[in-house]
Design brief:
Arc Repressor Mutant, subunit A, 3 strands
Length: about 150
């Protein structure tokens, strides 16, 4: 069998796994990027006790303003996030999870943990550590490169 090297192929298979985790929870399904935003906001607000604004998300995920704005609009329509004016800088809007958003995040996070366990069940501890290091290198490369400049 030819080794799979397409990131898109891997992504689509992982996305399919998430949809199969608990078929009774389809209404909780979030595309991975939207879940990742919720996770990032939850972590920054609740664990690090830091405020998040749109530009924080843009920088973290190396995405253009319009993409992040569209995603936040979707999350806001679902009533998962609030955007309020930053008192220190009126040009910025602080982003936080609503109680509903936090509840959905915690529910979906459990499903993500189940999928992660399934994905890595045959990996040794050393293999998991190696994969984490390699994926961190990928993230570093993403942050260094601007593909649209080439």
């Amino acid at each position: 069998m030819r080794p799979v090297t397409s990131i898109h192929y891997i992504y689509k298979n992982i996305e399919a796994m998430f949809k199969r985790v608990d078929p009774g929870k389809e209404h909780y399904y979030l595309p991975p990027i939207l879940f990742t935003y919720l996770e990032f906001i939850y972590y920054k607000n609740n664990i690090l006790h830091e405020e998040v604004n749109q530009s924080t998300i843009e920088k973290e995920f190396v995405l253009p303003k319009a993409s992040v704005n569209n995603a936040l609009n979707i999350l806001e329509e679902k009533r998962y996030v609030n955007r309020v004016e930053d008192k220190l800088d009126k040009r910025k809007k602080l982003v936080s999870l609503t109680p509903k958003g936090e509840e959905i995040y915690l529910i979906v996070a459990k499903d993500h943990d189940l999928v992660s366990e399934a994905l890595f069940k045959d990996f040794s501890k050393k293999e998991r550590e190696t994969l984490a290091k390699l994926l961190n290198k990928v993230v570093i490369n993403i942050r260094k490169e601007k593909l649209d400049d080439k």
